Structure formats: structure tokens, C-alpha cells
Amino acid sequence: MDKKKNMLKSSYRENCIEAGCDEAGRGCLAGAVFAAAVILPTDFQHPAINDSKALSDKERRILREVIEKQAIAWAVESVSPQEIDQINILKASFKAMNLAVEKLKIQPQHLLIDGNRFENQSNIDFTCIIKGDAKYLSIAAASILAKTYRDDYMLELAKQYPQYGWEKNMGYPTLLHRNAIKKYGITPLHRLSFCLLPKQMTLNL
After folding, report:
1. What's the distance, Cα to Cα, between the start and end of the chain in Å?
2. 88, 144, 141: which is closest to 117 by C-alpha?
3. Is the dihedral of CA 165, 153, 184, 27 positive or negative?
4. Neighbouring C-beta atoms of residue 109, cutoff 10 Å
5. Claim: this prediction has a pTM higher than 0.90
6. Strand positions, DSSP E, the chain
7. Which of 85, 83, 111, 84 is nearest to 97 (CA)?
8. Which residues contact 167 (CB under 8 A, 6 or more apart)?
9. pLDDT tens by residue, the chain, 205 residues
10. CB contact at 8 A, 146 and 76
11. Radius of gyration of the chain (CA)
């Protein structure tokens, strides 16, 4: 496949400082949800940058270095599993994105949000783009940063709780993860507001 034909769009609005925003870890049973905001140069192009889910871990890590070196500004933030349980995962995802935007060293004039909804906590104009991480470079770049920083966080946590296989499943609801919850119970990092086990399995607390 010719990657140049697949090149993502560099901007939604012309002559505008635009930040792409995306989150990682929304569907996980354990750990924080992460979000990133990225402002790329207006002339930035890179044929390999795509939705983080379409890339291998090695590709994401190589591209993370490119993004961090070449972006005008970037930031990554997270919201804890405890706060996820308090405010719900959707609001926690929005909060993480807002925190990442606040952390940017340059204030954007427009936000490109991956998805169909957003609760904006700033006065910055925004546009929601469904599957935006496969359409716009800045959102794809944000998805790569959010994913790799969250993976690093889960790899560290896996050392404390090796029985859950987080170094492989990153907290997502795999069979190994759910079987470990059934056998060993929950950790302080599990999201209690989530369905940690299928209905046919009972949790021994």
C-alpha cells in the first residue's frame, strides 16, 4: 500500500494553532486513564503516523520520539482509577484531555477531539471528530503519546502485581486478567465501577 495516499490531514482549520487530543485506557479494568494533547507544525508530515491501535509497540515508540522532538507543544495527563470510580470513565477521559490541554506550553486556538463528545473546561473552541485518530495527524500523534505513556505506567505497575499479566494486557479485560481477579481478588488499582468479572463468575472479596 502506498503510505502517501494514506497520509492523514495536517489541519482542520487553516492558519490556526490546533491541538489534537486523544485518550488511552478507557476500556481497561485497572489503572488510570491517560490523555495527550499535541500541537504540530502546520507543515508537519509523516507517512507512518496513524491511529495508535493500527501500529505495533515498536512503531509507536519510534514515532513518540519523532512527535516529542518535532511538535510545537505536547502534554500527557492522567486521571486515577479512584477518580474514575467517583466521576465515571467518560468524565474522567474528558478531564484527562482538559488537563493535558492546560499543561501545553502554548495555548491552542482550536481543539480537535477524537470521538463524538467532549466536555470542555476551557474557552477554547473545539471540534469532535469520530475516528479522528485515523484522519488527523495531531489526533493520531496524541493517541500515540497517550498509549505509550499509559503502557509505560502499566509496565511499572505489573512489577508490583505480576499475577494479573498487565505487562501484556495493559489492564484490559483479557481472560488471563479476569481469571487472576477471580483467583487473587482486586488491587487498589482496579476500577470498582467496572464489571470486573462476567456475571457467571463470582468475585471473592
Report:
1. 51
2. 88
3. negative
4. 14
5. yes
6. 18-24, 33-39, 73-79, 110-114, 125-129
7. 111
8. 154, 155, 158
9. 334 445 899 889 989 999 999 999 999 999 999 999 999 999 898 989 988 888 999 999 999 999 999 999 999 999 999 999 999 999 999 999 999 999 999 999 999 999 999 999 999 999 999 999 999 999 999 999 999 999 999 999 999 999 999 999 999 999 999 999 999 999 999 999 999 987 645 555 4
10. yes
11. 18
Cell numbers describing residue 122: 476551557
**Rounded distance between C-alpha atoms, residue 22 and residue 178, angstroms:** 27
- Domains, the chain: 13-160 (3.30.420.10)
Residue 201, class by beta-carbon neighbours within 10 Å (0-12 exposed, 13-18 middle, 19+ buried)?
Answer: exposed
Cell of residue 168, nine digits? 501484556
